Structure formats: C-alpha cells, structure tokens
Amino acid sequence: MTIPIPIPADSFKLGFIGAGNMAESIARGVVKSGVVSASRIRTAHRSLHRKQAFSSFGVHVFDTNEQVVEDSDVIVFSVKPQMVKEVVSQLRPLLTKQKLLVSVAAGVKLVDLQEWAGHSRFIRVMPNTPAAVGQAASVMSLGETATEEDGDLIASLFGAIGKTWRADEKLFDAVTGLSGSGPAYIYLAIEALADGGVAAGLPRDLALGLASQTVLGAAAMAVNTGKHPGQLKDAVASPGGTTIAGIHELEKGGFRGILMNSVVAATNRSREMSKR
C-alpha cells in the first residue's frame, strides 16, 4: 500500500474543480484568513465572469480542470452533485494517491467518491450557504486512507469560512436536514418577524433590519455564552410580560414541533436522494 506523503501546510497548492459561488467563498475565506495565499490557489472555468471573479483577488485561472489537478496538492470538487461522477471519473488518471481529494457535493457518499477516484484519500465536507459571509457550519468525514494530518489541514481551510465539526458520514443526511437546509428556515423566520413588525405598525425597512439583527444577536448569544437556549429564553421572558405572551402564541401554534418536523423531513429527503 502506498503511504501518502504529508502535504506541507505552508506551501501546498489548492485547486478547485468547479468555480461557482461555494468555491469562491472558500477561496476568498482562506486568502483573507492567511491560511493559503491567492498565488497558491488554482481553478478553471469557461465563463469570463467566473474567471474574473477568481482572478480579481489573485487566483490563477487555468483553461482546463486537468491543468488544475496537475498543479495542485489538495483538490476540492465543488461541482453540482449530478456532475461529480463524470468529473471525477474523467480526471481519475491524474488523481494520484499523493493528492488529497475533497468533495463538498451534497448527497454523494465517500464510498462512491473513492471508487470513482481510484483511491480513498478523500474527505467529504458538508458546508452551508453562509460560507459566503464567513459564517458556514461545515461537517467533515474522512475517507479510508485520509490521515489525521489531512483532516487537520481541511479543517483549517473550512475553518476560514466558519466553524467545522467532524462526524461519521452516516450522520450527513441529518446534517443536511439541519445545517444544510436550516438557513432557509431562518430566512422564513426573519421574514415572518419583519411582517409581524409591519402588522404592528413599523416601517418595512426598520422591521426587516430589527428582525435580521435580532436573529443575529440571539445566535451570537447562544454561541458565545455557552448557555442552553432555554436559559437564554427564560432570561428574556419576565413573569406576565410581553415575551411570555408571544411565546405562548408560538407554543399554541406548535412552533417547536414544526421546526423539528422540518429538519426530519429534509433529512428523510436527503436519504431518498442519496439512494439514487
């Protein structure tokens, strides 16, 4: 068995197969954080618009994916899930065991990625769309021959665009249901809070600003204080006050149960899609 050569953390080249918004978010994040300099990042795309998006902050843009693979040590596949098999299979002759491979494609399992690539030095990562503003929640799972050093390296890359966790791949459908789909649930909540503010007499722009900042602040409290959300809720809800009256309405409407059911429904849908 060939033992992978450790990738030098201070000089490796990072390649992106697929130059869409997720790839751009990751690339910008790692450059901004200083984890990888722009001169050590490569990608390829036919669209002039996408080429300019990457070259505007110093990334080297090649003409073909083959060039990206040949000139990179770590290769991130950020193409649409339905394209992953074709793209990985086409590049297989160049995907040597000395190259660390990463996939951010939702629903595509490590066992398939490893088969298509011809080796198991693969890491699967499930980020979410807040990567675009450096606030992603990313979960990663290591393939059979990916080392702890490989895992640490990829954690540092995705740590540049948010927070990262490691988990068994069997949990990824639930991860998709919670953090993958979760931003959409929160956007609905922000919109509903803003609409409530308008219904109560607030101007639309003020209501939306207050709703968005309130959700941001509440999330920061949950993350930074380490307190259970129930404790934080109780601290706001004074006896006989306005907040407990509002909470009473949420409970009557089954608010918590609806959110729980949403996560479970999205998880089940992810399971269905991954079986195809």
TrEMBL record:
Provide the protein's localization: Cytoplasm
Give the enzyme class: oxidoreductase
The record's annotation in SUPFAM superfamilies points to:
6-phosphogluconate dehydrogenase C-terminal domain-like, NAD(P)-binding Rossmann-fold domains
**What does it catalyze?**
L-proline + NAD(+) = (S)-1-pyrroline-5-carboxylate + NADH + 2 H(+); L-proline + NADP(+) = (S)-1-pyrroline-5-carboxylate + NADPH + 2 H(+)
Binding, NADPH? N65
GO CC list: cytoplasm
Record-annotated Pyrroline-5-carboxylate reductase dimerisation domain positions: 169-273
- Asked whether the UniProt record includes Oxidoreductase among its keywords, one would answer yes
Pathway(s) this gene product operates in, as recorded in its UniProt entry: Amino-acid biosynthesis; L-proline biosynthesis; L-proline from L-glutamate 5-semialdehyde: step 1/1
Describe the location of the Pyrroline-5-carboxylate reductase catalytic N-terminal domain by residue ranges. 13-107
- Any single Pfam family the record assigns to this protein: F420_oxidored
Q: Which UniProt keywords apply?
A: Amino-acid biosynthesis, Cytoplasm, NADP, Oxidoreductase, Proline biosynthesis
Query: Where does this chain mainly localize?
Result: cytoplasm
Q: Where does NADP(+) bind?
A: I17, G18, A19, G20, N21, M22
GO biological process entries: L-proline biosynthetic process
State any single GO MF term.
pyrroline-5-carboxylate reductase activity
Q: Does the keyword Glycoprotein apply?
A: no
The EC number(s) this enzyme carries: 1.5.1.2
Spell out the PANTHER family in the cross-references. PYRROLINE-5-CARBOXYLATE REDUCTASE, PYRROLINE-5-CARBOXYLATE REDUCTASE 3
Tell me the protein family, please: Belongs to the pyrroline-5-carboxylate reductase family.
Q: Spell out the protein name for this chain.
A: Pyrroline-5-carboxylate reductase
